[in-house]
Amino acid sequence: MEKVLVLGSINIDFVSFVSRYPQPGETLISNDFGIFQGGKGANQAIALAKLDVPTLMLGKVGKDILSDFALSSLQESGVDITGISKSQKSSTGSASIWVNAQGQNSIVIYPGANGEVDENFIIQHEKFFDDASWLLTQFEIPLKSILLALKFAKKHGLKTLMDPAPVKKINNDDIWGFIDYLLPNEIELKELTNTDNVLKAIRILKSLGVKEVIVKLGKQGAGYEDKGNFNLFPAVPVEQVVDTTGAGDCFIAGFLYGMIQWGDIPRAIKIANLTASYSIQKKGAAISFPNKSEIDWKKLE
Ligand code: RIB
Questions:
Q1: What digits encode the pLDDT tens for the residues 284-293?
Q2: Which of 163, 249, 264, 296 is catalytic?
Q3: Quick one: which of 62, 126, 200, 272 has the most CB atoms within 10 Å?
């Protein structure tokens, strides 16, 4: 099977489960707490590996004990960690997360070592682009490094997927021409294009050079533009939404798995919706993602 390089963030998530978000100045008692593997890059790498996709992660952890947690959870899920290095000065990236009774989350990130994934790091790791077929990346590491990695990806003949989260203003439009599949949610799409109109936004991004735009619409599902229309694929219904943290990451991995296996966007979106439906029914990000064998594939038909 085609191999994926995931370039991105590695965080440890500190998650409080609350009935509601606190007001400024208020102290609230949470009903549960967990320390989980997180970071959009690590989450997506783990979700892919759990779907049996050969996956190598490029990124940085810190010089602290949290790095052991991160490296072992990536490795135990089947991710190749030979592209991960240890910072000598920063701590491992972390995220403080509140999850409310509806399973929605609020996240504050401290980048730590993720902020050190600089252009030099990309140059030193160029050899990993040799035998991969796809590059998947997000916006939780410096933008200059992302741009260089996308350039290397095209130089080495890789297809590219970009999760534009957390969304940033892009001042250099060069980036778009290197992206084959962009997977924003509705908020990110609006932020990147300054329009609420989904079809118009997709057309703007395509005119800038993105080949395909897949829009994640949360509980509505996801879709893409097909012959001038927005083709929506509804989300897979679940009994109870427990925690949506990482659902977007799981969606992206499901989509990429579908593209690797079938090369067909509608089928890949349906697979993405299905895999994400598992992740929202459990607490935590990476730990909530399904193994390939756990998935009820009949639900696709
Ligand atoms: O996408 C969810 C992830 O965003 C969390 O795991 C957190 O670490 C942040 O990177």
A1: 999 999 999 9
A2: 249
A3: 272
